[in-house]
Amino acid sequence: MAELIAGAFLSSFFQVTLDRIASRDFKDLFNKKLINKLEITLNSINQLLDDAETKKYQNQNVKNWLDRLKHKLYEVDQLLDEFDTHVQRKSKVQHFISAFTNRFESRIKDLLDNLNTLAEQKDVFRLTERSYESAVSLQSSKRSPTASLVDESCIYGREGDKEEIINYLLSDKDNNNQVSIISIVGMGGMGKTTLAQLVYNDQRMEKHFELKAWVHVSKSFDVVGLTKTILRSFHSPADGEDFDPLICQLQKTLTGKKCLLVLDDVWNGNKECLERLLLSFNPGFSGSKIIVTTRDKHVAFVMKSDHQLPLKKLEKKDCWSIFVKHAFQGKNVFEYPNHESIGKKIVEKCGGLPLAVKTLGKLLQRKFSQAEWSKILETNMWHVREDGDEINSVLRLSYHNLPSNLKRCFAYCSIFPKGYEFEKDELIKLWMAEGLLKCCGRDKSEEELGNEFLDDLESISFFQEPLYSWGDKSFVMHDLVNDLAKSESHEFCLQIEGDSVQNISERTRHVCCYLDLKDGAGILNHISKIKGLRSLLVLPRGYGKECFMISNNLQRDLFSKLKYLRMLSFCGCKLRELSGEIGNLKLLRYLNLTESLIERLPDSICKLYKLETLILKRCFKLTELPSDFYKLVSLRHLNLEGCNIKKMPKQIGSLNHLQTLSHFVVGEENGSNIQQLGNLNCLQGKLCISGLEHVINPKDAAGANLKDKKHVEELNMEYSDNFKFNNNGRESNVFEALHPNSNLKRLYIGRYQGNNFPNWITGCHLPNLVSLQLKGCGCSHMPPIEQLPSLKEFSISNCNGIKIITEEFYGNSSTNVSFRSLEVLKFEEMNNWEEWFCPEGFPLLKEIYIWNCPKLKRALLPQHLPSIQKLKICDCNKLEASIPKGDRIIELNIQRCDRILVNELPISLKKLSLWENRYTEFSVGQKLVNNTILEELKLDFRGCVNCPSLDLRCYNSLWRLSIKGWHSSSLPFSLHLFTKLHSLYLYDCPELEWFQMGGLPSNLADLYIENCPKLIASRKEWGLFQLNSLKSFFISNEFENVESFPEKNLLPPTLQTLCINDCSKLRIMNNKGFLHLKSLIELHIWNCPILERLPEEALPNTLTSIEISDCPLIKGKYEKEGGENWHTISHIPHVTIDGIEQK
Q1: Of 376, 460, 905, 1141, which is least packed with CB atoms within 10 Å of its CB?
Q2: Angle, to 10 degrees, between the axis of helix 446-459 and the axis of helix 404-412?
Q3: Which residues form the R13L1/DRL21-like LRR repeat region domain (predicted)?
Q4: What is the tens place of the pLDDT at every residue in 596-612?
Q5: 244: closest CA among 578, 462, 543, 547?
Q6: How far is Cα 726 from Cα 517, in angstroms, rounded to an integer?
Q7: Given phi > 0 = left and psi -120 to 50 = alpha, else beta, which region is 642?
Q8: What are the domain boundaries of the chain?
Q9: Which fold has domain 748-882?
Q10: Residue 213: its H or E element
Q11: Cis omega (within 30 of 0) for bond into 466
């Protein structure tokens, strides 16, 4: 088939157009001679496309000819779209036919004249017709498996660069107490991002830095959005839309911690925003590092980089290693001497760029013939370079060898800005909307073809997985690849911001625009004048008051003029309403209203008969869909995730093309509505059914026909929170009738109150189930999950009808080994659970969690679990059990469980927490000696009669230590020996008076002391002032006769956070103790009832936050309204008193 053969960009466009013209509906209405001429002309031009596409790079006139041809093809496509729409709307009205055909035939004649003119110019440009014999299928080889984003085995020639950066990052040289910045500078495709990823993923970074984050800095960004992205990357809340509170949150997140931040792909245009952002990191972040990757040396200068690494091109031998890895794919190079000889010549032409070598290597792996390799070597495309074009010729060569349909799909991606992260399913739906997946494979759905195409583009590295992703599987394009896509789309696809509207032409078909308060309305007004626009992707810029709101009037103007629009995305634009004029967009196939504030959709949306995808994610104010929703007869994907829909519209079951239906809500008035699911057997992926309490009749439930939905892989079935259960067997019968298909992989059942779980939760009915979650169910017996042969994760919570777990949990297993696939087992908040009789087995079990099961007394856990890695048992105070044995346990956490015996500790242990258990005897002290790789240790001795033996001298790897309730006057070990100790927490040690000889460890960063009065009395002997790594100090509960704190030179100048809590005798904050704290960022003072004043004159300029709570004598003095001393702290950005922000 032509669409699978490497060919010209427009070839597949021609094929789709010819197929549409050949349809019976079209030919029957118009003059047959005219249509035949049109077909002949299109076919003759189609034969010239391969030659024209090769020559366009050397001949600007040929390129212009192709652009004119593409423009006319779009006009033919628009005419055909209008024809389809008119036929669909007027098919039952006969009297319109004559006027309709006359008008359309006139337009066809004009188009035919234009196309004939173009065809006649073939001799002028010396264009020759296609030679089919030389064409080669791109799919003639097996598709190579896609690799992860960073595979160190595929990286060559950067070992020295990597070590140089790591040595710099690990160095603790003084940088005036500010964050250090290293910039990796090099041209596109040189491997800057890959090198940064190698460093970022190195194990030494994990140990040296407490927090790490990777952020891609897009060419167009706002400082608020970038700050929120950084916060999310540090797994910190990113709420709010104002810069100052976000910066405060960022400082709180990072204070007292060494962090590593990578800012990838920084452009010079970001100067002001980046300078503003970087100010929030300084001063006070000594030890933290930032890696910047950029093409521009000036960026490194602007950001005041402490160190620059100019990245050089790779040596030939390293390029050859990369090429062999991808082109030969495990084959023995020496068995293909001719390939080797040709390959080395090809690699030499790649100019030392690793991206170019990798991309071309992957392409040639799929065209593994000597003839094809020779053809690539000898092609003139190596010398192609347009004016001002920085695109590597190898990338263009890889593109040139793609099939026509893949070229169009790839070029469409030029609508995305650089660094834009797009989800896999999102892109496929956009391709569908543009018609790029039509007629490419009649035996496959468009979605299946889209998946194949996307995999093809990923396999040659045109698409890459991002380092971190916040959603489903997603991809990004390298900047050079993005440039290539834009080059091929040329003026047909534009990105618009500010004054770039001047680039709009009549040929523009696809637009991505950024909207802000200044330019938003003007940009949309210009866009509304693009008559032939087919795609509009709107990206908001700014947050809160800085965010441009698209008014109803602007929408009305857009929707009344852009009649050829196929794709419209207002994702994240916070629309308050959707104009009723949306119904004018008769050709619209894709509509994304994610995060809109719409309360209802206009009825006119039901006129969009061609709409295939409607995305309403997180439209939390939306409670209903229009009553005529069933008229959207082409709808294939409906995403209602995060909406508050109360019921489904009538006749939704008639939308039998639906493949995605994220939520189905059974309405309160009509439980039989669930039968609307009956005919929707094309549903795929995830389906959530809620409101099941409204289903009364099991026949209605059976009518949902879940058993025939073989493509649904994830099923959620939920009852409402306020459901009042009637114990009449109805729920059990209804649920039994909701029998899912045997292909189901993940199942969640919420708040089901039937007497028993349905019989279909067994292996013979659900052999492929890998995850089962039960929450809030009322059954008194467990389902026999052991019969589920593929089950990897089982979680049960809030199922308060269960008291004993015995044989029914295991069923009648035909195997000798129980739970042979299970890897994760969770029990949470099982309030009435009392006993668990558990047989041996679980050969693959890695994690066990038992949390808040207050009545659980006996649990006969398996004593040998060969794969167990994590065991956490919390808030099970009556539980009597012994810990299973396992040679691979790395984390053991026992909290508030007084009767659990810890008989021995594995040498593999890295994290141990025995906390608030009130043991009368502590038996693990001696057993800890052998655990030389322990990193985190939490021990509570409050219940012990005598202080146990505790020898931790061999813990060179200990990073965090927490001790509660130690009874003796000193700890039984010397803390200074723990050279890697970062955090020390001491609680409730009333007899503890001093640290042993040597004091505190030199690398200590966090020190937390609560209710240790005798120890605090000796604070001047700790040597805190010499601890240059100390960033955070928390002190709580009574000082012994201390009225003033801190003393002069008590605390080190590196301190960033100081917290003082529950000090009833503290009267004065000592000015002398603050004078040298030049790094202090946060000051927290809680519950100091007689404190009279703050150290106003000594507060450092670095301070950004003061929090005061339950300090009645100073509250009134420092409040903004009427506080006599407010002026002394008013310069501090964030002041909070008793929970009220003063600014």
Answers
A1: 1141
A2: 80
A3: 674-799
A4: 999 999 999 999 999 99
A5: 543
A6: 56
A7: left
A8: 138-146+315-397, 158-310, 748-882
A9: 3.80.10
A10: strand 211-216
A11: no
